[in-house]
Amino acid sequence: MNIVEISKVLSNKTRVNILKWLKNPAENFPPHQDIDHFDDGVCVGYIQDKTGLSQSTISTYLNSMQNAKLVIPTRHGKWTYYRRNEEVIQGYVKVLENEL
Prior knowledge:
The protein is α+β, with helices and mostly antiparallel strands.
């Protein structure tokens, strides 16, 4: 685990908000129209709508979060859904608690 890389990703308020929203997607996003569950995460379009930022900005943010292993992408046809990687998030918190 690269705590410096994760810390860089978390230095952006929108990326932190995305992780907060993904913690409880049913409360933070509208129901999916094409699938009836949030098991695979939230569609990029819903994340973009909630942030009010451009698609390219959100894609860049999600890519950096994916590279840091904070989120897990799943493809459904042409759509990508993102969910939190709880194992990495909890590992990051533990490293901070133990090392800092």
